[in-house]
Structure formats: structure tokens, C-alpha cells
Design a protein that fits this description.
By secondary structure, this protein is of the alpha+beta class. The chain is 19% helix and 36% strand. The strands form three sheets. Strands 1, 2, 3, 6, 9 and 10 form a six-stranded mixed sheet that branches. It is elongated and about 70 Å long.
């Protein structure tokens, strides 16, 4: 097939990268998380620039999930809240990893099987989520009036 304006652009080093979102209410509590996987190529700066650009709007097309039930907060009034994290956890790499671990597993498992032509037939293959994937985490502020505001970090 020939297309006058089409140009071959083989993908030689595809990498699965992620955008992650934490929905934070006005009290600083995280009740929901979301994530989306992408396949990109290029150096890390190029990929991070694109992830940052996409983080501003793509949370609106990403399925969300609840914060895992093992996260608990004891409020000053003594009430225990389950399935809640605090926004301050996002800056700690270990807490961040624990908070998003279930979602990362789901994203890894949702990567689809692919097919490619090989020796007159087809072979199945699948891209894998790297052990420490390149990702951007964005806070989405949830206001009582229904407004959602992504807090996109500068690059």
C-alpha cells in the first residue's frame, strides 16, 4: 500500500510508561486513584514531557478505583476512616509505591496481547510494565462544588 503523505516510522524501543492520578479533597484526603498506561519511545525527557501534557486531561478518560482498604486514618475526633490516604503520602516513594501497588498490578495485567507476522504465521507477544516504570503522578483536587482541577507539576 502506498500513501503519498505516509512515512514509515518503525517503533524500535517501545516502553510502557504511566500517568497516575490521586484525587484529593479539600481536607487533603485521597479517596480515589486512577492510572493509564501508554507506550512511548524516545529519551526520558521526551516521554516525561508528553506524560505531563497528557496528565492535565487524561484523568477524565481513566477508570478510577478506591484507595486500598489497608490504608486507614484516625481523625482528630477519634473516628477511624478506612480506604483513605493523605496527600502527604505522595511525596514519600515508599508510601507512594504502596498506595498505587494494586492499581499498578491492574494496569500491568490489562496490557493487551498483540500479534505479529512471523515465518508465514503469527506469533503472540505482550509488552510488559517495567519493574520501576517511568511515571508522572498528578494530584486532582476535588472541590465540593464538583470542580476537578489537576495540579500538573512543572517541567
Amino acid at each position: 500500500m502506498k500513501y503519498a503523505t505516509a512515512k514509515a516510522s518503525a517503533v524500535e524501543a517501545p516502553e510502557v510508561v504511566l500517568n497516575l492520578w490521586a484525587y484529593v479533597d479539600e481536607a487533603g484526603y485521597i479517596l480515589r486513584l486512577a492510572g493509564k498506561s501508554y507506550v512511548m519511545e524516545g529519551d526520558d525527557d521526551e516521554k516525561l514531557a508528553l506524560l505531563h501534557a497528557l496528565s492535565r486531561t487524561d484523568f477524565l478518560s481513566a477508570a478510577w478505583c478506591k484507595v486500598p482498604a489497608n490504608f486507614k486514618i484516625l481523625e482528630p475526633n477519634g473516628q477511624r476512616m478506612t480506604g483513605v490516604a493523605t496527600a502527604s503520602m505522595l511525596s514519600d516513594p515508599i508510601s507512594h509505591s504502596h498506595l498505587f501497588s494494586t492499581l499498578l498490578e491492574e494496569l500491568a495485567n490489562s496490557l493487551p496481547d498483540q500479534l505479529r507476522s512471523h515465518d508465514g504465521g503469527y506469533e503472540q507477544f505482550r509488552l510488559n510494565l517495567p519493574q520501576a516504570p517511568l511515571c508522572v503522578t498528578t494530584v486532582v483536587m476535588e472541590y465540593d462544588d464538583g470542580i476537578l482541577v489537576p495540579m500538573v507539576s512543572g517541567r
